[in-house]
Amino acid sequence: MTAAAPAEQYDLLAIDTLLSSDEKDVRASVRQFCDSAVDPHVAEWFEAGDLPSIRELTKALGDLGVLGMHLDGYGCAGMSAVEYGLACLELEASDSGIRSLVSVQGSLAMYALWRWGSDEQKAEWLPRMAAGLAIGCFGLTEPDHGSDPSGLRTRARRSGADWVLSGTKTWITNGSIADVAIVWADAGEDGGIRGFVVPTDSAGFTAHPIEHKLSLRASVTSELVLDEVRLPESAALPGVTGLRGPLSCLGEARYGIVWGAMGAARTAFRTALDYSLTRQQFGRPIAGFQLTQEKLARMNQELALGTLLALHLGRLKDSSGVRPAQVSAGKLNNVGKALEICRTARTILGANGISLEYPVIRHLTNLESVLTYEGTAEIHTLTVGQALTGIPAFR
């Protein structure tokens, strides 16, 4: 029986040589955490459709330093975009739901506070969120408005010195276990689309878990209902009005997905490679057949190219900055290629490819959600198209 592939076969193009020692240390720390705290349990969480110890897990992630790790101050680690990307890759190599937990906490809820919040809002929430002692969610998507957030129906109206919010949000990660929700609402003549910091124990706020998911099952997904939720003036994010606010947060989260998708793809590829070296058919390992080698070569090529693309965008983000269309190109490419890699890996595993004894089918079904959240493939295609032609084609 042939042994599993040695480590150097996993990185044929020596991409590791492009990383600094600090970047490798961050990656190793997150990988060690996932090996001990996530991987032994995640298949059971997925099968059960539950994260039974999510507060303990979030606290452990806070202790690790990955919650809001790319932000400065307020207990955040202040790490680079590449280091954050590598963390996302390792988290999603375990499961997309775990990366989503970290991404929604740090790149959506915390980033909204950090970028657009008042000093008081930041001081109240960011240290606890960075430590994993408070969980946040991000309320933008609605039952009738996903790709077109400009049409959102959640309303914010003035009532004396207060704001009153009414509306419904759906497909909200962390929603039913969150301590604070960043909710985007249309304030009409009082400022258009505004962000609000909503403690989830506010009167009129309820959250209900979304059941019967067949994807991202190791993740809490919820519907938020705001029924005349009264908030003080200080609950409004003062730093931004209009869609620029939520879209800036989505850009941060999408950047993490560019890396994370390659984590899911890496796990699928390595599983398929190892399996092909040990699975015997017709008296030899299936890795010795030309059709299997063609699949492995193509998977390795797309994994390497996607990882290099993520690294390039990370280097841009850390130096001159990265444009939204560049992040869209990264998400569009990497999630699509990750799906192809997982589907090909499934064929190499044969019937075993649909068993939760192996991680491939779990990653494959998770990526079906990743393909459409934080912007569908169609929206990112049109974003890239507009960047190339200068002509918007969304309507």
TrEMBL record:
Residue ranges of domain Acyl-CoA dehydrogenase/oxidase N-terminal in the record: 21-132
Single annotated GO MF: glutaryl-CoA dehydrogenase activity
EC numbers for this chain: 1.3.8.6
Domain of life: Bacteria
Domain Acyl-CoA dehydrogenase/oxidase C-terminal: 242-388
Keywords: FAD, Flavoprotein, Oxidoreductase, Transit peptide
Signal peptide: none
InterPro entries from the UniProt entry: Acyl-CoA_Oxase/DH_mid-dom, Acyl-CoA_Oxase/DH_mid-dom_sf, AcylCo_DH-like_C, AcylCo_DH/oxidase_C, AcylCoA_DH/ox_N, AcylCoA_DH/ox_N_sf, AcylCoA_DH/oxidase_NM_dom_sf, Glutaryl-CoA_DH_mitochondrial
Cofactor: FAD
Residues covered by the Acyl-CoA oxidase/dehydrogenase middle domain: 137-229
EC class (word): oxidoreductase
Family from the record: Belongs to the acyl-CoA dehydrogenase family.
UniProt-recorded name of the protein: Glutaryl-CoA dehydrogenase
Species of the source: Kribbella aluminosa
